[in-house]
Amino acid sequence: MRYISTRGQAAPRGFEGVLLAGLAEDGGLFMPQTWPSLSPDEWRALRGLPYAELATRLLLPFMGEAIAEADLRRMCQESYGSFAHAAVVPLVQLDERHFALELFHGPTLAFKDVALQLLGRLFDHVLARRGERITIVGATSGDTGSAAIEACRDRAAIDIVILHPENRTSEVQRRQMTSVLSPNVANIAVQGSFDDCQDAVKAMFNDAPFRTEMKLAAVNSINWARIAAQIPYYAAAALALGAPDRPVTVCVPTGNFGNVMAAYAAMRMGLPIERFIIGSNRNDILARFLAGNDMSARPVEPSLSPSMDIQVSSNFERLLFELLGRDAAATAEQMTRFRAEGRMPVPDAAWRAATARFHGFALDDAGTLEEMRRLKRESGYVADPHTAVGTAAARAHPGPADVPVIIAATAHPAKFPDAVRAALGEAPALPPHLADLYEREERFTVLPNALEGLENFVRAHARRNA
Ligand SMILES: *Cc1c(COP(=O)(O)O)cnc(C)c1O
Known about the structure:
With 466 residues, the protein is α/β, with parallel strands linked by helices. The chain has helices spanning 15-21, 40-44, 51-63, 69-81, 112-130, 143-152, 171-178, 194-206, 208-214, 224-228, 231-240, 258-268, 285-292, 316-323, 328-341, 348-357, 365-379, 385-396, 417-424, 451-463; strands at 3-5, 30-32, 91-93, 98-102, 134-139, 158-165, 185-191, 216-217, 248-253, 273-280, 295-296, 343-344, 358-362, 405-409, 445-448.
């Protein structure tokens, strides 16, 4: 499998190059040159496989020349063996035709574990073979940091340093990061805001000598391997509900569009996903685009679903590339204009092609709490606020009555106890593997928001075993 950039100016490369590069040199995102496609009989043959085996078979066409099948199988088994549910990604029926696809049974209780658990192992495997080490540096407002730490802890070829704003994450979020005492993991509580953390990380990546010395790397959501690793759960759900002999609809509460992109990829591989419904909170750029071709960024506003507080959905570029008939020059022109002006008029034909399959819906905080109450009342289901945005979006676009709707349940309700308490009057209990979270020892270093001191800390951490 070869990968090409959505902006057409980076040399095509194989999976290993895409995994290690993340972003292409021309600022674009990597896409498979062709989509691997399965026949209906091939899909039927995957029904009922254990999740790790399903993932191995679906991911092999994307990685095959870089990762041996037996190695991929072992990494999938290790990744998904760490999940707290025997089905890994169980499907829970909410009413006649709506099903929650629970993606939150991994170590940090959010769907990012599904991809990152595998990504950490893929990185380690490839780096060991090359005899290289990397230092992962990231900024987090809470969720991404813990998933990255769990993915990289104890990996031989990786050191990881995560910056979070001191006293500005929830206690659950902080403890999920700071109670990981593995020697290759370090947490910095920066005396500043999340934006300060993000600016510091950007400055480290822009400091070329430091970047080279530390072999800095990121595990952000534009890495194609992360998207690929999210394809198998849509396949698992669709197959369980009758695909390929019955179409399904997929509904995703989204921020960066990555999780939607994985569902789109599953469709391109031949899974009969008829419609895609996209849920947003009050940061509703995608809903405005689909409703009226208004792709214009507004300031980000905080909401009850903070992992979707995003105005520039970086993975949307991949869909745009597809909508524009894979015209890289046109994609590059659109994206350059969007960066410069904060808005882009998508060509009418491409917008119409999007609205034929994709439907958007935006929900404010009051609506989110009401939807959480409705789910509890009508289905006895306790949803986190992100998932509730998804179920409300699905109800806003009902579609044909005989097509089941798969709703991505992206976080465990215990990860957002304040929102659940506000909606239902009671906070959910942490699942057994995290029940002692509040008693665990924590380790982190408080540092002022000053680049030199932060870089010195990263250097000391990465060098301790060099
Ligand atoms: C990251 C995240 C999202 C958004 O995922 P995208 O891939 O950016 O669409 C939604 N819900 C939760 C709980 C998340 O952690």
